Amino acid sequence: MTQRVALITGAGRRFGFELAQALLAEDYLVFAHYNTSKAGVEELESKGAIGVQADLADLNQVQALIKTVQQHTLKIDLLVNNASCFFNNEAVDASLANLDAVFRVHTIAPYLLISGLQQELKESGQALVLNITDIYVDSPSTDYLAYCAAKAGLANLTQGFAKALAPEIRVNAIQPGPILFLPEHDSEHRQTVLAQTPLKVEGGLQPMIDTVRFLRDNPFITGESIKVDGGRALNI
């Protein structure tokens, strides 16, 4: 199989969706994972992607996702652990299910996907695992303690798997900053964040996609985390 193959978790919206579109334009076979964002994945499917649904907070569904991908392909060239759930302290403290989901989605599910798809990644001969972490793994927000801890776990897994899977598989991470505000972010919030960001702009998704390509195309980088944040990590 000469066509390159990618699996992107959380591909139904925002960065995952745009990355999937970019890879489809490069003639990748894209497995577009989603939990609830079906509309975005349906659009990707119309362009040739294979949509795969799973709630990554349910570990049985993670295992089923692995088996589904394995039924369709013998190799994976790019695995992007992008899916996320974002709960503040109040939401986590109000529900043990939310606390459990934060660690399952950000840390346990990526562990299972990397481990479970190891053979398919090795078959590529040039595979890259790319974990989307956060600038707050180095300086956690006191409002999102569990989220930051779970992302820090994924950052640690990045380095651990980079050592364990070399030289056949490379493992890197991207730490995004203010690349794309959420609809619920009001003007005051946006102005505050941009004022604390040295480059003073909302980055957009293209710098993230460019960084994916850089890490994919440079065969001598593994175990690395690259901040794509306009310098915001300098001020948190």
UniProtKB/TrEMBL annotation:
Record has Phosphoprotein as a keyword: no
Transmembrane segments: none
Keyword vocabulary terms for this entry: Oxidoreductase
InterPro entries registered for this protein in UniProt: NAD(P)-bd_dom_sf (IPR036291), Sc_DH/Rdtase_CS (IPR020904), SDR_fam (IPR002347)
Example GO molecular function: oxidoreductase activity
Pfam families referenced in this protein's UniProt entry, alphabetically: adh_short
Similarity remark: Belongs to the short-chain dehydrogenases/reductases (SDR) family.
Name under which the protein is recorded: Short-chain dehydrogenase
Organism: Pseudidiomarina aestuarii
